[in-house]
Amino acid sequence: MKKRWLWVACILLVLGIIGLSGCDSGGSVSGQITGLSLSGQQQGIWVSGQGKVTAVPDIVTLRLGVQAQEASVSEAQAQAAGAMDKVMTALTSNGVAKKDIQTQNFNITKLTRWDDKNQRQVVTGYQVTNTVTAKIRDTSKAGGIIDDVAAAGGDLTRIDGIDFSVENPSPYYSEARKLAMADAKAKANQLADLAGVGLGKATYITESSYSPPIPSPVRLEMKAAVAAETPISPGETEIITSVQVTFAIK
């Protein structure tokens, strides 16, 4: 019986020595639990902020062109070329610089139909499409330019849409950033107060910006010039900046 208790005492002594070796002099555990690393955890207060300002567009981008359809390629191309020359003249005579006119698409398409009697496709003609974008820097002239283009190209004229934009958005983005950072800091201060901690300096900042265009996707087939000038209103566009900020905790 005495030998049995002696063995138990030795085992307890060994376990005690092992336990003490895992502690430092202050009594804290110095070992690391497998799979847990506190150093890899994100620290601080993470918030997002948004700044939004409005601006009046000073650029009108007009998407336009001509489309001709004839029995042969040469006839369709000749019609389209003649109409496009007149459209280009109408643009430049209204003050649109040549550098602001850019060809977007030129396409020749074979038109066919199915012949039930002969059970085959039959060519019915050819369609030529030529489209450009024209950047108009005086927004007040946009309506008159559309009317002149319609008159120049006649029934072959196609207006595919209008976009409005700001030529120099940098000052608006600067203001939007100020608002976004103020928004982020206000949120971080509130979270710090609710948590009962102090808010430190920003340790991480990332930004994403967005300035959506104002599109007018309606496709117009201009049959003839109208007596009254086409009304065009640029309205306002939004310049938006978002930031994500990490603040240290004091």
Quick take:
With 250 residues, this protein is of the alpha+beta class. 32% of the residues lie in helices and 38% in strands.
Task: Describe the protein's architecture and organization.
This protein is of the alpha+beta class. The protein folds into 2 domains: 45-54 and 170-211 and 242-249, Translation Initiation Factor IF3; 57-167 and 214-235, Protein of unknown function (DUF541), domain 2 (Alpha-Beta Plaits, 2-Layer Sandwich). The protein is built from 4 helices and 9 strands. The chain has helices spanning 2-21, 73-93, 142-153, 170-195; strands spanning 45-55, 59-70, 101-115, 120-136, 157-165, 199-210, 214-216, 220-221, 237-249. Strands 2, 3, 4, 5, 7 and 8 form a 6-stranded antiparallel sheet that branches. A 3-stranded antiparallel sheet has the order 1-9-6. Strand 3 and strand 4 (120-136) form a beta hairpin. Helix 2 runs antiparallel to helix 3 (142-153). The radius of gyration is 36 Å and the shape is elongated. Mean pLDDT is 83; it is low at 5-10, 12-41 and 216-226.
* CATH fold annotation of the largest domain: Alpha-Beta Plaits
Q: Unreliable segments (pLDDT under 50, ≥5 consecutive)?
A: 5-10, 12-41, 216-226
Described by the principal axes of the CA atoms, the overall outline is elongated
Order of helices and strands: HEEHEEHEHEEEE
List the helices and strands and how they pair.
Elements: H1 2-21, E1 45-55, E2 59-70, H2 73-93, E3 101-115, E4 120-136, H3 142-153, E5 157-165, H4 170-195, E6 199-210, E7 214-216, E8 220-221, E9 237-249
Antiparallel strand pairs: 1-9, 2-4, 2-5, 3-4, 5-7, 5-8, 6-9
Helix pairs in contact: 2-3
